[in-house]
Amino acid sequence: MLSVTNLRKTYGFGGQAVEAIRDLTLTVGKGEFVCIVGPSGAGKTTVLRCLCGLLKPSSGTVTLDGVPVTRPPKQIASVFQDYSRSLMPWFTVQRNVGLPLRNRYRSAADRAERVATALDAVGLGGFGDRYPWQLSGGMQQRVAIARGLAYAPEILLLDEPFASVDAQTRADLEDLILRVRDDTGVTMLLVTHDIDEAVYLADRVVVMSARPSVVLETVQVDLPRPRDQMATKRLARFAELRAHVLTLIRRTALDGSAPTPHHHSTIGERR
Ligand SMILES: Nc1ncnc2c1ncn2[C@@H]1O[C@H](COP(=O)(O)OP(=O)(O)OP(=O)(O)O)[C@@H](O)[C@H]1O
């Protein structure tokens, strides 16, 4: 289980200080799919960077299975928004996917098999010898996802992973991620500013306030699985959850006052 307790992060010092996160507490259980949403600048990327040990919190703790996270844990892989910067243009697709495996898997044959399986999983089986710049944006992002999967992490952190692709590709990639989750049981923590996406994918949506951010509410998404882009989004319950999250975010984006944390609440509980 990944736990964040009373995380606080301030960038800089004195008059230059930017209080990004005031108080964030959340847990992600094994095999769970949690989405974090919040207005622009709420500190979503900051949270993920603290979670994967790339950034030191100002205070509070991050633990993975009870062990404090102080540097990138080997159980976690990350996929970031900007595939054009995360893929090496001078390496082939399979070399890119295999890069993080070098420190984890000794045998070259084992690594090659993992790369091939991951590329198959994202529908890029025949593209291992290509270079990233020979692929479309959506395909490049699938390479970045394959790289995360090949590593066989327990937890996959995804930071706005579909923000740079067109709407149809985005829907396809969302479904790809759901399928991967069903097939592998990997724990997913995804950051997005897209409320529909968060409700469509998640078991729970953590709604962050505007900066300095706190958790406004954790919304339990009780929509049936498997999810379907058409059928799920037509459900009255989908519309209800979406409207609820949207209202929270609109309110916090407009309201300049310092918010107070509100850890556990779901609209289901009020019914
Ligand atoms: N290295 C830094 N130094 C100073 N301030 C920073 C730094 N990184 C981020 N910030 C500030 O901290 C706040 C949170 O940034 P962060 O990128 O985590 O937000 P976000 O929710 O991911 O934003 P967006 O949705 O726009 O991507 C912002 O106000 C940002 O300007």
UniProtKB/TrEMBL annotation:
- GO MF assignments: ATP binding; ATP hydrolysis activity
Q: Which CDD domains match?
A: ABC_NrtD_SsuB_transporters (cd03293)
Q: Which UniProt keywords apply?
A: ATP-binding, Nucleotide-binding, Transport
Report the SMART domains cross-referenced here. AAA (SM00382)
Q: Tell me which residues make up the ABC transporter domain.
A: 2-235
Q: What top-level branch of life does the organism fall under?
A: Bacteria
PANTHER family for the chain: ALIPHATIC SULFONATES IMPORT ATP-BINDING PROTEIN SSUB (PTHR42788:SF13), TAURINE IMPORT ATP-BINDING PROTEIN-RELATED (PTHR42788)
Q: What name does this protein carry?
A: ABC transporter
Q: Which organism is it from?
A: Polymorphospora rubra
